[in-house]
Design brief:
The protein is an alpha/beta fold and 273 residues long. The chain has one domain: TIM Barrel (Alpha-Beta Barrel). Helices cover 33% and strands 28% of the residues. Strands 2-5-6-7-8-11-12-13 form an 8-stranded parallel barrel, surrounded by 6 helices. Strand 3 and strand 4 form a beta hairpin. The protein is globular and about 40 Å long.
Amino acid sequence: MGHSVSSGKIGRLGTFLCSEFLPAGGILMTFSLYPAIDIREGRCVRLIQGDYDREVKYDADPVDVALSFEEAGASWVHVVDLDAARSGTSQNLAAVTAIASAVGIPVQSGGGVRSLDAARALFDAGVSRCVVGTAAVENPALVEAITELGHRVAVGLDVRGERVAVQGWERDSGKSIYELLPNFENAGVEAVVVTQITRDGMGTGPDVKGLKQVVRSTSLEVVASGGVGTLDHITELAKLRVEGRALSGVIVGKALHDGVIDVSEAVKAAERT
């Protein structure tokens, strides 16, 4: 385990980024950090701006990384099968299964969930909530079909500006996120995960203006992804408010794996709401 995730810093990094607040209406909500594990060919990696040719590989076993997050106090682990996201065929189900079996916290997982069978395979593997991306854009009825089986679903909308990309971020869907959001309002979806592709893996900060517009445009919980590289970025997202509503969480990957963000300081940052 030569990877920095095994260090005390990453270890304490859990999601543990939880800050509670009362938005207008008096409903208690929680802001959570989802530490991310992206898997390609069975290994932990990160892509820069979603580019499969700009891959950062980590010398760490995905199960060990997940366990380090749990030991740190994480309330979730976010796992992405990058091979499946690109091809539509599950290629790292064994790794996802191993993670879900090893940890005692819920696992959220996505990548290539384009059929009921693919969703069932994830839930059979022990995943608590699946993220449906490409299929949600191209076949919104699939999302409702999955939720009607009693499964927990988040919709993943990966954007360049307002345009949603599909198939592992390699193809433009031709639709804006605002065209698509209404499709999921009454589909039993728990949350929408909005990944800002051009900022992903860059650490230069999230598109706060864009995220505010998304929060304003849907009644669903919104989880941000892409761009977080400092404690201030986390604090800014935790404090984000739009007409009494807020983000429900943020997915962070590269900054954690690189040891850029200290876990204990991240917890304090998330509490500054």
